[in-house]
Write a structure and sequence with these properties.
Blueprint: H1 16-21, E1 26-30, E2 33-38, H2 42-51, E3 54-57, E4 63-67, H3 71-78, E5 91-93, E6 96-97, E7 103-105, E8 108-113, E9 116-120, H4 126-136, E10 142-144, E11 148-154, H5 158-166, E12 178-183, E13 186-191, E14 200-206, H6 211-221, E15 228-230, H7 236-239, H8 275-284, E16 288-295, E17 307-311, E18 314-325, E19 330-338, E20 347-352, E21 355-361
Parallel strand pairs: 3-15
Antiparallel strand pairs: 1-2, 3-11, 4-9, 4-10, 5-8, 6-7, 8-9, 11-14, 12-13, 13-14, 16-19, 16-21, 17-18, 17-20, 18-19, 20-21
The structure holds (6S)-5,6,7,8-tetrahydrofolate.
The site of (6S)-5,6,7,8-tetrahydrofolate has 16 residues, from loops.
Length: 367
Amino acid sequence: MALISPSRRLRRTPFSEGVEAAGVSAYTVYNRMLLPTVFRSMEEDYHHLKSAVQVWDVACERQVEVRGPDAAKLVQMLTPRDLRGMLPGQCYYVPMVDETGGMLNDPVAVKLAEDRWWISIADSDLLLWVKGIAYGYRLDVLIDEPDVSPLAVQGPKADDLMARVFGDAVRDIRFFRFGHFDFQGRNMVIARSGYSKQGGFEIYVEGSDIGMPLWDALMEAGRDLDVYAGCPNGIERVEAGLLSYGNDMTAQNTPHEAGLGRFCNTATAIGCIGRDALLRVAKEGPIKQVRPIAIDSKTLPRCDRPWALMAGDTRVGQVTSAAQSPDFGCGVGIGMVRMTHWEAATALHVVTQDGTFPAVVNDKFWL
Ligand code: THG
C-alpha cells in the first residue's frame, strides 16, 4: 500500500518523537491519531513482547472526561454493565451501546471520583454521542477530551521496569485498579491493564509536555531489561482474544454477539440507553457470536477485509482478524459465526484474498 499523507487532521502524539527515533515501520489511524503497528517486524515484536518489556504509544486511546454531579448517572446511561459497585480506583471494561443495543465502543471506564470519570475509548467518535446525551437529558456535567495520553508498559518484565521509575509500590497495583504516582513532580494515574495478555501497566500521561521526558526515562531505566518501543501486536492480541472495535464488531453487533455478555448486567443496569433492546436479545440469545478460529495455514495474507467462513457452499460467518502464530504453528483468527456452526471443533474453511484454507472453531482463545 502507498504511504498515508500526514496533516493536521491526522494527529501526532506526545510520544511520536520517541516512536520515530525507535524506527517505527508502520502506522494505522485510530481516533484520527497515529497508532504504531510494527517496529522491527510483526514476528520480532511478538517474541520480544512475550519475553521482555515494551513501551507502547497508545495515546490514540483518547479519554472522554465526564465530570460534575451527574457524571455517574451519565456513564451508567452509556453501558449495560452495572456500575453501582464500582469504586474510585477501579477500571471496568464496558461495552457501550446505542438505543438499539448496537455497540458504539468498548472502552475502559476509569472512575477517578464519584463525579469524575475517564472513558478510554476504542476507535469511534464516542465524544459526540456522550455530549449529545448529556445535552439532550440536560445533565449537570462537563464533557471534553482532555490532554491525557495513555502510555502502556507491557511484557513479563513490566513490573521491574515500572518499579525503577515509579518505585516498588507499583508492584502492588491489582488488575484493573489504578493508583496515583509521581514523575518529576507530576501526578500520573497508573493502572494494571493493557491490550495484551503479557501483563503490564497503562500510564495516563496528563500534559503533552511530560510525554517525552517519561518515554526517555523508561527507555533509559530499562536498558538492561532489553526494553524497546512496541505497540499492540496483531498476532498476540488475536491469540489473547482481545477484540478490536470496527474490525471484530461494529454498531451492527450487540455486546452478546461480540462475546461481551459477561460484561453486561442489563437487568440491573437501570438507566442504560438500549436496555430494553438488550433485554430482548439477552433473553433469546444471539444467533451469531465471536469465536476463536484456528486456520490450517503456513502463512496468511493481511486480514484487511472480512474473510468468508464457509461450511461447504454455505456462508456461515466471517473472520475479521487473523495472523499466522509462531507459537501455535497455525493461523489464529477472530470470527463471527452463526449458531448452526459455532460449536467447538466444527470444520469450516476460510476464503482469503490469497486462497482458501481449512479452518476449525476452537474451544477457546489461545492465551
Ligand atoms: N486500554 C485503555 N483504553 C483502551 C484499550 C486499552 N481503549 C481502546 C481499547 N483498548 C478498548 N478495548 C479493550 C479491549 C479489551 C480490553 C481492554 C480494552 C481488556 N480485556 C481483558 C479481557 O478481555 O481479557 C480484561 C477485561 C476484564 O477482565 O475486565 O483488557 O487496552 N486504557
